[in-house]
Amino acid sequence: MSKNDSRSGEERLKEAYEELGALQRTFRIRQIPAIIVVEGWNASGISDTIATLLQGLDPRGFDFHALGRPGEEDRAHTFLRRFWVRTPAHGRIAIYARSWYSRALAEKIRGTEWEKRLDRAITSIKTFERQLADDGTLILKFFLQISSEEQRRRLVAREKDPLTSWMITRNDWDFHHLYDELTPVIRHIREATEEPWAAWHIVDAEETAVASERVLSTVIERFRAHLDTGGSAPLRAHAPLPPLPSSASPIDTVDLSLSMSRHDYDRVSPECQARLRACQYSLYRRKVPLIIVYEGWDAAGKGGSIQRLVRSMNPRGYAVVPVGPPSSEELAHHFLWRFYLRFPPAGDIRIFDRSWYGRVLVERVEGLASEHQWQRAYREICEMERAYVESGGGLIKFWLEIDAETQLKRFRERETDPSKQWKITEEDWRNREKREQYERAVREMIARTHTPSAPWTVIASNSKHHARITAQRAVIDYVNDLI
Amino acid sequence: MSKNDSRSGEERLKEAYEELGALQRTFRIRQIPAIIVVEGWNASGISDTIATLLQGLDPRGFDFHALGRPGEEDRAHTFLRRFWVRTPAHGRIAIYARSWYSRALAEKIRGTEWEKRLDRAITSIKTFERQLADDGTLILKFFLQISSEEQRRRLVAREKDPLTSWMITRNDWDFHHLYDELTPVIRHIREATEEPWAAWHIVDAEETAVASERVLSTVIERFRAHLDTGGSAPLRAHAPLPPLPSSASPIDTVDLSLSMSRHDYDRVSPECQARLRACQYSLYRRKVPLIIVYEGWDAAGKGGSIQRLVRSMNPRGYAVVPVGPPSSEELAHHFLWRFYLRFPPAGDIRIFDRSWYGRVLVERVEGLASEHQWQRAYREICEMERAYVESGGGLIKFWLEIDAETQLKRFRERETDPSKQWKITEEDWRNREKREQYERAVREMIARTHTPSAPWTVIASNSKHHARITAQRAVIDYVNDLI
């Protein structure tokens, strides 16, 4: 589509659409997800540019997103969560008219210390894009450039036209008057987020038709190049894992001999229950969401511990999320996607019975995730947890530790006690045979994800009473510290 | 748990919880979904009663719902949709603190003609519960009964207690003063919705502890009885299908020889596009949602027709929903559940590329649904469509008809044209061999679901140009009639 092209505009467009359609089909067949971000100055023609692009795409295979200000629900989360839950499934194309960039600009450049907040947003964005690119997503980012003078002309023209005047708000003029001031900020954001796997294309948009054709041809080139260079293979080289931290792991210091008598349990339990209920109410009033992750050996007592933890809580404010194997829809997304979907709303508690740590435990040991995938997951998990905590959420991670003998004893009890037989399956025995492999995975998981913002609490669980009260007290202490 | 029981209250409770836990596990293993509705007068102790029940349940296996007034989004739908999307998956228990009954009462008894609106709500509720029961859901409904005098005492007591005074609003007193007036209305609702598969249990709640124990023991009895009488087998006898209506089917009168030249198509197309865009804008301004269903033979041209239909529309206001085989999560719900999830928000257009009619087409012919299931589906679909249209939504259903020769010609073209080969699979040829079976299914589908509120538009599609313009004009005419 060079400018010397002798074909008519219509002919060129038709050919471009045919090629784009073919590329879209190839992406679908090869299950490659793609993200197309169109950003730009106000009145730079984002909608028209996207309209030109969409006409060449099969509408059954793309999702279009034009997200404005977040609603109350979204504001309770890190600002990227609403984009995380809208990432494209493998083989689909997601097109964003404005995106996390406009939101970062709109939400972060107000008030004091906005530069710090903006830099934190940039860090989150870089993480977000890197994680998606690592998962095989092609990311294209466009910025439609117009001059301040051209922007003024367009705003005036739209104000005069009765069909478009309602679209122009004071906000548009406010931003127009900030054009010069915003220019270096926007350039800084673009430069800070320029990566080989998430490159910016700055498009001269003084003429919308030219810009539209430019975006269309760039999409075609980038899609084609992505297929030529191996398609879904990630662009980034696989970095080796850093050595395991040498600091003491909380799993080394856990004292499995700790126990609690039934009598003591009955004595302290009522107070714990009352305080847990008070904790829930504090979280609710302060609109702080809390995630409690339960991981642990089979038969370590996760279910019983969860049941006692929520016993006195108000069911309006908590839910237990049982995590099993991912569904087909979940498998067609980044592995963290299904957890973002289940994050608690503001003031709510979500208890994850197993969690994203399945990636580095069962999926690692059973070979359900590739080595690259589970090795990458440590960093991805730490980044997600940190962003969640930094945005104000609470996060508690329990590892319920029992020794192999206790596990064996409980398995045998389950086999002989008719009321417990449902708890034991062939799989439990198979997993037990892999205890060594799992032990290695557990130790590495805790070593690599025991972070200042999201430390593990390892609970000695050979004694169920002791383990239950320990978990309840840990929640009480955490919430009291938090709020 | 009779009153003469000599065991202590604590002992009785413990035994009841053990039995309830065992029943919950059996329901999970047998994949039976259960719904427990707790309704009652204000201050009748709904929360406390449910709290007692929940303590005996594994929190990993239930979902608790306390839905108040609908938000803006939910108000754009029939009032049952927010409950439809929250029906329990197979093997799970959903507990509702107040439910569609309270919502019907709160939303329908205002303004003029409230009795008519209430009766329509009752009809929808009966349909909703029957469809879920037919799908194997156990439905339990409780009403906590207290006297007007007791209600007054409790409201006064709560107002005096600083911990609960904030909970009492003017609304509570308004409803209290309506106690006598509401009594016959509530009785009418209960009587009208009393069915063998959705029976009411009226519980004397003058003493909350007694009421809680009563609800708990009733749940246990009903769960046990459900297992004894065959578990997931539906309670309702399978009614034979009514004879096919003798009125002419639109598929008999379609003239497949209709065609349109490229020249005529190019001439009328621009105006259609402009009018479609105007239609979309009218729907948006009036906040009317529109569903367009595309069904038709393989190679009938659904994809191309959809692409031309949306070409000039604003992508902010439409989405295409490609419907494939249900996911594991979708299979664990009533077959209509996944479509309720994808209904358009107010003012939006959703185009379903295949739809719920898969139940009586591919699932019938390929044996993926039992005879009972697909035969029941005709009525279920008509009921859903009617409720949607009555609540103000627009619904257009297209059947794209081509004859067997045209299909064969297109299949062959697809095989030889490299740019079209992706469109043809082994499955298409297999389906073609079953043309007779599919023809029977199509004719029966149209005969049984061609209703006044949701008629089929059969589109002669041997000529693609003719078919595309016909579909576009049908949408334009429908929207212009609607608004």
Overall number of structural domains of chain A: 2
Structural class of chain A: alpha/beta
Largest β sheet strand count, sense and barrel closure of chain A? 5 strands, parallel
CATH class of the largest domain in chain A: Alpha Beta
Strand content of chain A: 5-15%
User: Strand order of the main beta sheet of chain A, please?
Assistant: 2-3-1-4-5
Q: Per CATH, which architecture of the largest domain in chain A?
A: 3-Layer(aba) Sandwich
Low-confidence stretches of chain A: none
CATH topology of the largest domain in chain A: Rossmann fold
The number of strands of chain A is 10
Q: What is the share of helical residues of chain A?
A: 40-55%
Describe the structure.
The structure is a homodimer. With about 475 residues, the first copy, chain A, is an alpha/beta fold. The first copy, chain A, has two domains: about 220 residues, Rossmann fold; about 220 residues, Rossmann fold (3-Layer(aba) Sandwich), CATH 3.40.50.300. In chain A, about 50% of the residues lie in helices and about 10% in strands. Chain A has 20 helices and ten strands. In chain A, the strands form two sheets. In chain A, strands 2-3-1-4-5 form a five-stranded parallel sheet, with helices on both faces. The longest helix of chain A is centred in the middle third of the chain and has 25 residues. Chain A is elongated and about 85 Å long. The N and C termini of chain A lie far apart (about 60 Å). At the A-B interface, helix 1, helix 2, helix 12 and strand 7 of A face helix 1, helix 2, helix 12 and strand 7 of B.
